[in-house]
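Below is how a single chain appears once it has passed through the pipeline. First comes the sequence as given, then the structure the pipeline wrote out for it. We keep one example in the README because the format questions we get most often are answered faster by looking than by reading.
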Amino acid sequence: MGDIVFVSAALYLANKPNWKSKVLRPGFSPIPSNELYNFEQTLKSNSQEPVSSTAVSKAPEKSASDMEDGSKLIDYKGPKYQELRLFLPISLTQQLHTLVIQNVPESATKTADFIQWLERATTKHFSTKAEGTKVEDLVENWSSIIASTLESTQDIFIRMYPLAEFAQVVLYWIQWFSKATESVTTVHIDENTARYVHDIAPPDYTPDVSEEELGSLRSQIADLKSTNSESSTENAAMVAYDVDMSTLSDLPKSSLNQLVKDIIEFRTRVLTMEKEKRMQEALEEGRRRRSQLKRVMEQIRKSKGSSVPATEPEEDEDEYEDEDGEDDWAIERRRLEKEKESAQQSYNALLSHLNGTVMPDLRARKQRLTLLKDYEAKLLRERAFSLKELLHLGNSDYYDHRREFKEEEELQDDADRRAHNEQPPQAPKDAPSQTSTSESRSPDTSALHSTPTHEPVAKEQKIKLALKRVFDTRAQEAESDSEAETDIPATAVSASMPAPTAGLPDLLPFQGSELAARIAELRQSRLVDELVNEYLGVYEDELVDYILDNIVEHASRAKLLVELQETFDDDSVRIVDAIWTKLLKH
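Resulting structure:
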């Protein structure tokens, strides 16, 4: 990279000291270092000659025939025009002072005149505010690019000098072009320039555009359009195309001018053919849309049962001679086939979504709904297995391992009761059968109940064995019998059930809301919790819920006694009597 130098022709012509660099910078072109002298001499010679952007002006000599005809090379773009590649901003100041006028009518011969008129009109408008501002000091350089060949419009890039009134000029131009052309031809600035204008613009400044200025701008734009519509093929061709003369340096100078003209004519002819082709395509597209709209209107009229109005003028079928009607039909047929294929693809996608997502989800929801409907029956069928699982969980090694902690808690509970003058839950005193039952027990059993804080291991094993025996029996019955539950014969109940306490009714005398209130009061008193914890030795909240649910469902002392007898054996009578006494107590 030591033999390469980066240079900028624009900075050299502007007499800037930093027109060359050893590193790549925006807008700089690389050349060999030994060509630096030739580069300077070329720029000096070009700067002394009249600037001309036509292809013929780049020829080293003019033909004798051209001199005889008296033709002269005219600079249509002016001295401030730069090619787009040289117009690229190379500093932040140039970027902030660059704007573009969009959708300006294309005119190869009068664009420079339009820029000069714009400078003069702007200077005249700001003459009272910007005293001493000259026309040459407003626009530094400008360039243009064709925006649409079909509509013959261009975008003009303008780089302005860093004036003190730059923000006012930009805001004035934006308002001026927007009002004059109804936002067709507009002034556009980038985000950085917009922020810069907003920062330096006076807060009380408002662009004031007079009707005279609006009319002048409209007339200038109309002049550009009329110039573009005129048949100025020769002048436009001379300016629109720029032939690279370096590729033609080996040709004789006598035939160089004619060759350049032939190249320009060929390019012009190709461009004209392309424009005509696009116009023909647009016209055919309009015809197809028109015919399609007519068919839609005919279908609407037929669906409503009305005929064509007599006042509607009949269109002349020969107005547009459709020479390629068969091609139009083929295009329409392909369009219909594409629509049909697209509809088929949409149908396949919807069908795949239905079979792959919707239907499986629907079947799963239906199965879940069926399970929810039979939820209570399922609970009854699996009740034995749930109780057996509860038994295993209640007799796990964890509870045996924490036995000392349980005993400490029970001792603490007794201490708390004595401190608050409370007694542990006991059976009602008016239950005579309770006394006989307790007396019929063995001395060991009564001793165990009299000292609940020092339970021996024998009672623990007895409770575990009794629960295991009951739950194993229930599991075998549930596996062999498909029915949820079977009624127990009255003889079996009377044989296995101890004699109930006299004075307590078998069925509760209340139901509905009153029963619910009594059950809620019983739950809050935690009587059932204390009874289960006392007689079972282990607190089981699920067993407490089961006892309360049985009372709500049956409200029968006998049925509750049967259910608890299988679990608590002879203690079931005391538990049921205590619960019934609590419920009947006002």
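The beta strands are 4-7, 20-21, 29-32, 98-105, 139-148, 153-160, 186-188.

See the next section for the split statistics.
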